Amino acid sequence: MTTFAGKEVAAAAKAQDDLSFFEPRALDRLMGLVMELAAQLNQERYRRIALEELLARRAIIEPGDIDNLGNDDQVVESAVTI
């Protein structure tokens, strides 16, 4: 006897098969992971840009301060050791 939950699992498995674009299916999972990471990175980029803009508007930093930190050897060294 198949339960209602069993039918849902079977339907989900069928839907997953319909959405496969690559063989083997591991490539589909890998591509899904890559796309998820790209989406998260894009969201982090937007948040960083908004934070930098907010700090500049409130005169906490100057607009070019963050870019200029790339030339500071101490900051670069501490970023590498993290």
Primary descriptors:
elongated, about 0% strand, about 80 residues
What is the ordering of alpha helices and beta strands? HHHH
Helix fraction by DSSP (H/I, runs of at least 4): over 70%
Number of domains: 1
In DSSP terms, counting alpha (H) and pi (I) runs of 4 or more, how many helices? Answer: 4
Uncertain residue segments: none
Q: Characterize the main sheet.
A: none
Q: Separation of termini? A: 56 Å
Which value, in Å, is the CA radius of gyration? 23 Å
Principal-axis shape: elongated
Structural class based on helices, strands and sheet pairing: mainly alpha
Residue-averaged pLDDT, rounded?
A: 81
Amount of beta strand: under 5%
Using DSSP, what is the number of strands? 0
Describe this structure as you would to a colleague.
- The chain is mainly alpha-helical and 82 residues long.
- 74% of the residues lie in helices and 0% in strands.
- It has one domain.
- The mean pLDDT is 81.
Mind sketching the topology for me?
Layout (H helix, E strand, L loop, with lengths): L3 H15 L6 H33 L7 H4 L4 H9 L1
Structure in a nutshell:
The protein has 82 residues and is an all-alpha fold. Helices cover 74% and strands 0% of the residues.
